[in-house]
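Contributing: when you submit paired examples, paste them exactly as shown. First protein:
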Amino acid sequence: GRTNKPFQTRMKEHQNNIVKKTQASALVRHIESHPGHEFDFDNASLIWKSNNKLETQILESACINTLPSCNVSQGDVYVGSTLSSVIVKIANLQDRTKARHNRNQQRPPQLYIPAPAIPQHTPILQPSPPHPSSQPSLQSSQPTPATPSPQSTPSRSA
């Protein structure tokens, strides 16, 4: 969760809540509803640090919506599921939290999926010339001479 306290102080508070079974704590509720689940405080780490309150509120809500958590609330601000996914992806939190979550688990590597093949030579498409019947005719019904003939030249009278 989001806090303005030093990280170690907040971890101690979480541990104390578990020992005292403080019902307001999401961690305590999770442990009670999921017997056998424990929290690894020794390997806990910060996922984001900022002095901008709105930034941390948005990021916290996005993480709650997108990543596995035991948070009781949805966060202080509403962030829709699509935007949450984008925020977590841009902040590169999904990969960091997965790596941390999988640190102690032995999982088979994911299948290799090659990138799509791109042709080395892109064919150049040239437009084919238009069919003669598809072009409108620019000729009139009577041929016009290219150069005026001497008979058709107007004469000047002096």
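Second protein:
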Amino acid sequence: MPASGLSAPFIPPQIGGLGALGLPPSGHEASRGERVFVFPSGKPAIAHRDLKSKNILVKLNTTCAIGDLGLAVRHDVATDTVDIPLNNRVGTKRYMAPEVLEEAINMNHFDSFKRADVYALGLIFWEIARRCNIGGIYDEYQLPFYDMVPSDPTIEEMRKVVCFDRQRPSIPNRWQSCEALHVMSKVMKECWYQNAAARLTALRIKKTVANLGASEDLKI
């Protein structure tokens, strides 16, 4: 029985693809959850630091929840300080942003952590999109960079692919024939910019996905 009404995994690898129009609801929920740093006044903002599909759970009502906050950092707006947990854990290497792999992230700047989360969110969108059924065609489930690194890549292997070679997961041409995936492909690419400051904000992503779902041609 799923605990607390939660059911996993977020992107089931079972036979059969997700409906193409099933992308926006999941993506919307994930991006809304990723906006955890936009809290009402007085509450601390949070960046996850280990965002990946396995850390997103789907509730029985199909809404999503982000779990495993063991690496999350809190931002105290009143004092403009970042509370970083004191543990030896590191995030999942496959989902690390370029600046994290290069150890160039500004640990004193809260926006740095938000931007690294957005990079990982773009990879999650790619995982969802692969499972979307377009005209009876969909891809098997794969992790990001599955065709570029081993199943358990090292920091060095990810750094070479992401930072030196500047590789990103491939976007199939056929996604451009589906309005939802066409829009989401653009979002993914703008989440993956090498320059962290150029990436989309989670709020911009949320609005884009919400608008996509609300469009007359894509009733969801």
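If you have annotations for the second protein, write them as plain sentences, like these:
Residues 1-8, 20-25, 28-41, 216-220 have pLDDT under 50 and may be disordered.
Residues 35 and 202 are 6 Å apart (CA to CA).
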